[in-house]
Amino acid sequence: MKTLSELERARLRWRARRGLLENDLIITKFLDRYEAELTDTDVVALSALFKMDDNDLLDVLLAREPLQGEYDTPDIQRLVALMQEL
């Protein structure tokens, strides 16, 4: 398992910045807890997840709506489940 370099960590956190404070809080808490353990596969899944519209992402993170379409993958599902547990 490859660990993220400091530059990769900074880039991931920058991409994680969202327009809605609620998303920022959930994602920041997730990264604070799991960032050191993220694999390349996790980073790819997070990068895909970060392409979601802010309101849709919030609905998914709060379990109001399920993941759909291109976002409904096992890797993204696992990361969302971890975020929902926090």
What's the structural blueprint in terms of helices and strands?
Elements: H1 6-16, H2 21-34, H3 40-49, H4 54-61, H5 74-85
Summarize the structure.
With 86 residues, this protein is mainly alpha-helical.
Description:
The protein is mainly α and 86 residues long. It has a single domain, classed as DNA polymerase, domain 1. The protein is 64% helix and 0% strand. It is built from five helices and no strands. The protein has helices at residues 6-16, 21-34, 40-49, 54-61, 74-85. It is globular and about 35 Å long. 20% of the residues are buried.
Count of separate structural domains: 1
User: What low-confidence regions span 5 or more consecutive residues with pLDDT below 50?
Assistant: none
Annotated CATH topology: DNA polymerase, domain 1
Strand portion, in percent?
under 5%
From N to C, what is the helix and strand string? HHHHH
The CATH class is Mainly Alpha
**Shape by Cα distribution:** globular
Roughly how many Å is the radius of gyration? 12 Å
Number of helices: 5
Number of strands: 0
The CATH superfamily name is: Flavinator of succinate dehydrogenase
Distance, first to last CA: 24 Å
Indicate the percent of residues in helices. Answer: 55-70%
Overall pLDDT confidence: 89
Q: What CATH architecture would you give? A: Orthogonal Bundle
Class based on secondary structure composition and strand pairing? mainly alpha
Largest sheet: none
